[in-house]
Design goal:
Chain lengths: 383, 186, 528
């Protein structure tokens, strides 16, 4: 007997261990399927609201479907050949109008409170202007004169399944938005062309970016870390390819990042003055071409027939330096070609030179390079 | 048959009325926005004098600018960050230059953060009220803003951001015209 | 409602239908036009479904495999437009054509020639819309909600044709609704008061009024778009003093009632089916009517819950949150009434009843997620994610579309005189039921986990459930081809149906022969 009992006991323990392991694994997986708790007080409040309403719905569902399934089971024609004849009851009708109404009030009260807190955008320690572009984000730190664009860095080969996909597939950018923890960071969200929407789930922030209008949102992040988000308003072809990555850091790290950014801007200005060789510019230009141009003009510079013109063998790219600069600075109105005038002088010169030196353009054309000075000159001469 | 005709007439009338109503929504929306601050725009005020009173507390004011897609002008605030006193008149300017070699018409759209500061900003003059800013090739201009921030401004608002976005009034026409021709490209 | 029929045998001295194609082009017979609408909507359902298969196939795995992002956007746009304006709405109009006159004891629709016109402009509208796929710049690619400025300043040239086709669809719907209202208001059999009307008739009366109220607003919205694009106005163009957010307000002022246009007739259908197969009178007839009326009225004051993230002032957000939550009350009443009808009934589960039961459960699930979406702070996390996609597909597929299928199974014996094959019907139900849940249930998860809607590619953590969802979608898709087979088989032949067809069925349509003669109720029946 004792043996059996022992055996049962062992089984029991094992069962509990296994069940526990399973359930913790399940709950971990469940977390991955549920709304994130996020990294801020607000996001946790939103999560709690979500779970509250979820469980209320589950309770109502169990009750209502319970009665329904019971009726389907117990009142089949076989078990109940003659149906009852009742078909109204004012009391019941009133009850099931009023009770849901009361439940709704119970949901509306905490929801309204949270909403009010979210709407308190009156002040921010740090203000960042966020501008949605087709198809990238621009960030401008209003107090510190730091300004940059964030592009998707996922390789086209990954997207087109030529190489294995990395861990952060479609969630990686070339420049992260860096913010300090524990400070109230306010985002002033707007757009350059069409409507976009700036969403970072961990902060429970989702605000539409509308050309001409400023929408505000704020957050106080508690823990340093990387927080990833996406554009959530259909904004054209590459809507699925303009992610957001926010990096929350300690205050001193933030300060040195700002200083670094400002120094880099000054260094860039100095680079503009330097005399450049074709090789140096091409080396810089290749990466820029990949992030900014490849989506349309393709890696081989052939474009897509009928939609995006080829750069390889293009008359302008081979022989018309002035027009070449003009197109990149101003864009081509009405075509998919946007202005890239936000690139720095060095970047602009590098990417143009890259296209003028690649795919045999240098051999077949004049082979002239475009130096940062040319861009400065262009800006000056533009009446 | 008579009542049938009547019903048809009434319903057709309702259809026509709803069609007109959809257009009526346009001015209604403006009125609605004005009352509720729905679109965050500050509109022109006529009773700014009532807000000019004793000098109040100091608040921060920041102007930001943005060029919408396809707008090549230089457009920026003459002074980006400043401190002002509530209850007093403040004058600011924006610098704009048409950098192209054709005549262009721009239009500025304004917006405010935080949202609830909007009701306390009284603009007497602003280039953003103009239906179009016309600039000759190469022409430069200083665009004026004249405003008062009311003393009643909630005390926890210490900074106001005024945003101005400049649009090319003809952007749409240019894009549409291009649809008729070939896609231009580099 | 208990209708006792005194005069139920009609004279058969009328001429029958014309022969050949002419019958269908020139017909003014409500049954012929109903049939045309139903077949047309089925064709559109399959075309829109094929687009859904392209969408799901692209989403089967992360990475771009089958289509380019540009074409993907055209697919999601056309899928939405075709399913709403070509699939669900014409199917309901077809059912109204077949059933409303027979249910109220009228010989035909009030305006038979307009009825013919309102159908025959529809194929033309969809021909125009689909032809945009072959135009330069491709089909409309801005989503079925066509938000400005993506649909104006940045739209492909085919947008003009899209506007044209929306105008035609709108005209067709408006004519159809005028017809329904005039028929119901003027042609009821003697003795059939408003509160004695079958619920399907009630639901269509309310739907028709909603259509009359909002289709002109949609027409206005696309007219403004057209003027912005071609005539230099600036309704939605900030560069000319307009406001792109205004577009969203006008669109959703149409769009939210439109959502109820697609579900109210389903309420009517399901009420009839549950009543019939429970063999028990519907519980709370008058509260059902009042619930539908209050849902219809509330639908005009909730539109901005589609725009919680657009940056509205706090007061507006609170108002739209509360008003939206309020809709749960009348909707709940309807669900409770259906269950109370089943309670202590004498239930059998033929195919229509299976679909109706699935409707009650799955539509309610869609209602729950709808309630969650109403909570503004939580909506900031749900908005424009797959959670929303799951929500509206739950109310539209196992909601509206299941009700249409239930209606087809329920009334097809009356239409054709043949019983459908019950075994095949049940198989079709179970395939659809499993397919729909496997497709859309996981979308709740991927939405909550952070996948935005309308993206052709996604991050790796969403891969597993997307794969499941795609598998479900193909199961669901192919089971509808099976449905086509069942319908054709039933039309071609089958067990002869009795006039009563279903033991517990109530209503005038069951008093005529099966198949229903070409002309019914030339002499109005008396309802007491």
């Amino acid at each position: 007997m004792t043996n059996v009992r022992n055996l049962i006991c062992t089984f029991k323990t094992q069962f509990i261990v296994i069940a526990f392991a399973l359930s913790s694994q399940l709950s971990a997986e469940w977390d991955a399927l549920n709304m994130t708790k996020g990294a801020t007080e607000i996001s946790r409040e939103v999560y709690d609201l979500h779970m509250l309403i979820f469980w209320i719905c589950v309770a109502i569902g169990v009750l209502v479907f319970g009665v329904m399934f019971y009726s389907m089971y117990a009142y089949t024609k076989k078990k109940n050949p003659v149906a009852a004849t009742f078909h109204e009851s004012t009391k019941v009708e009133i009850a099931w109008t009023i009770i849901p109404f009361l439940i709704l009030i119970a949901m509306a009260v905490p929801a309204s409170k949270t909403l009010q807190t979210m709407y308190n955008d009156e002040a921010g320690d740090i203000n960042i202007q966020v501008v949605g572009y087709q198809w990238k984000w621009q960030y401008r730190y209003l107090e510190d004169d730091v300004n940059f664009f964030a592009n998707l860095t996922t390789d086209l080969d990954e997207i087109y399944n030529k190489v294995p996909k990395g861990e952060n597939y479609l969630q990686e950018v070339d420049e992260m938005v860096v913010i300090p923890v524990g400070k109230k960071v306010r985002f002033l969200i707007t757009a350059n062309d069409v409507i976009h929407s700036w969403w970072v789930p961990a902060f429970a922030i989702k605000q539409d970016a509308i050309p001409g209008f400023i929408n505000t949102a704020w957050t106080i992040v508690e823990e340093p870390g990387l927080y990833r988000g996406k554009c959530t308003e259909l904004c054209g072809k590459n809507h699925g390819f303009m992610p957001i990555v926010v990096k929350a850091v300690e205050q001193d790290e933030y300060d040195s990042w700002i200083a670094e950014k400002q120094a880099a801007a000054i260094a860039m200005a100095e680079l503009t003055e330097k005399d450049w060789t074709a090789e140096e510019l091409v080396a810089r230009g290749e990466a820029l071409y990949t992030t900014n141009c490849v989506a349309c003009h393709q890696v081989n510079g052939q474009g897509i027939t009928g939609i995006f013109p080829a750069l390889a063998g293009s008359g302008i790219v081979m022989n018309d330096k002035a027009r070449n600069i003009e197109i990149l600075m101003e864009g081509v109105q009405g075509a998919a070609m946007n202005s890239f005038s936000y690139l720095s002088e060095v970047e602009m010169a590098s990417v143009i030179t890259y296209t003028r030196q690649s795919w045999g353009n240098a051999q077949n054309g004049d082979g002239e390079i475009v130096a940062p000075k040319d861009i400065v000159e262009y800006k000056k001469n533009k009446i | 048959m008579g009542s049938r005709k009547k019903t048809i007439l009434k319903l057709s009338g309702a259809v026509a009325a709803m069609y007109l109503f959809s257009f009526l929504l346009v001015p209604l929306y403006d009125v609605f926005c004005d009352i509720t601050g729905l679109n965050g725009k500050v509109t022109q005020t006529t009773n700014a004098e009532s807000s000019i009173s004793i000098e109040g507390r100091e608040i921060g004011l920041q102007f930001i600018s943005h060029n919408n897609a396809g707008m090549p002008w230089t457009f920026k605030p003459s002074k980006e960050v400043t401190k002002i006193k509530t209850g007093t008149m403040y004058e600011a300017t924006f610098y704009a230059k048409n950098t192209t070699n054709e005549m262009m018409v721009g239009r500025a759209v304004n917006s405010v953060a935080p949202t609830n500061a909007k009701d306390y900003i009284k603009k007497i003059e602003c280039f953003c009220f103009a239906e179009g800013i016309e600039l000759m090739p190469g022409e430069e201009i200083l665009l004026p803003i004249k405003m008062v921030v009311d003393n009643e401004l909630p005390s926890n608002i210490k900074n106001i951001v005024l945003s101005y976005t400049i649009f090319d009034s003809n952007l749409e026409k240019k894009i549409i015209m291009d649809h008729d021709g070939d896609h231009a490209g580099s | 409602m208990s209708a006792v029929i005194e005069n139920h045998h009609n004279e058969h001295d009328h001429h029958g239908p014309a022969k050949g194609l002419k019958r269908w082009f020139y017909t003014t017979n409500h049954k012929d036009i109903g049939t045309l609408y139903l077949w047309f909507s089925f064709a559109m359902f399959l075309i829109g479904g094929a687009m859904a298969m392209i969408i799901r196939a692209e989403l089967f795995q992360p990475g771009m495999q089958i289509v380019e992002p540009e074409f993907y956007n055209q697919m999601i746009t056309l899928h939405g437009l075709i399913m709403i304006f070509g699939g669900v709405m014409p199917a309901f109009v077809g059912l109204a054509n077949w059933l409303v006159p027979m249910m109220i004891g009228a010989p035909d629709m009030a305006l038979p020639r307009m009825n013919n016109l309102s159908f025959w402009i529809l194929p033309f509208a969809f021909f125009v819309l689909l032809s945009s796929l072959f135009m330069e710049g491709g089909a409309p690619n801005f989503g079925w909600t066509f938000y400005a400025p993506l649909s104006t300043t940045y739209a492909p040239p085919s947008t003009t044709f899209f506007i044209f086709s929306v105008h035609i669809m709108g005209a067709s719907s408006i004519m159809g609704s005028i017809n329904v209202i005039v028929t119901i208001m003027n042609m009821r059999a003697p003795g059939m008061g408003l509160m004695k009307m079958p619920l399907f008739v009630w639901s269509w009366l309310i739907t028709a009024y909603l259509l009359i109220a909002v289709m002109p607003v949609l027409a206005g919205a696309v007219t403004m778009m057209l003027m912005d694009i071609h005539f230099g106005t600036s309704f939605f163009n900030a560069a000319g003093g307009g406001d792109p957010v205004l577009f969203q307000h006008i669109f959703w002022f149409f769009g939210h009632p439109e959502v109820y246009i697609m579900i109210l007739p389903a309420f009517g259908i399901v009420s009839h089916i549950i009543e019939t197969f429970s063999r028990k009178q519907l519980f709370g007839y008058s509260s059902m009517v009042w619930a539908m009326l209050s849902i219809a009225i509330l639908s005009f004051v909730v539109w901005a819950h589609h725009m919680f993230t657009v940056g509205m002032p706090l007061a507006a957000e609170l108002f739209f949150m509360w008003s939206t939550m309020l809709i749960a009350v009348p909707t709940g009443v309807k669900v409770f009434n259906w269950i109370a009808t089943m309670f202590k009934g004498s239930i059998t589960f033929e195919t229509p009843m299976l679909f109706a039961c699935a409707f009650v459960v799955l539509f309610t699930l869609g209602g729950f997620s709808g309630l969650m979406l109403a909570i503004t702070p939580a909506d900031f996390q749900y908005h424009d994610t797959y959670f929303v996609v799951a929500h509206f597909h739950y109310v539209l597929v196992p909601g509206a579309i299941f009700s249409i299928m239930a209606a087809v199974y329920y009334w097809i014996p009356k239409w054709t005189g043949n019983m459908y094959d019950e075994r095949l019907g049940r198989l079709h139900f179970w395939l659809s039921f499993i397919g729909v849940n496997v497709t859309f249930f996981p979308q709740h998860f991927i939405g909550l986990a952070g996948m935005p809607r309308r993206v052709p590619d996604y991050a790796l953590q969403f891969a597993d459930w997307n794969m499941v969802s795609t598998a479900g979608a193909f199961l669901f898709g192919f089971s509808q081809v099976f449905f086509l087979f069942i319908v054709i088989k039933t039309v071609m032949g089958g067990k002869q149906a009795t006039d009563q067809v279903w033991e517990g069925a109530r209503g005038l349509e069951w008093t005529v022969d099966s198949p229903a003669p070409y002309h019914t109720f030339s002499i109005p029946p008396k309802v007491s």
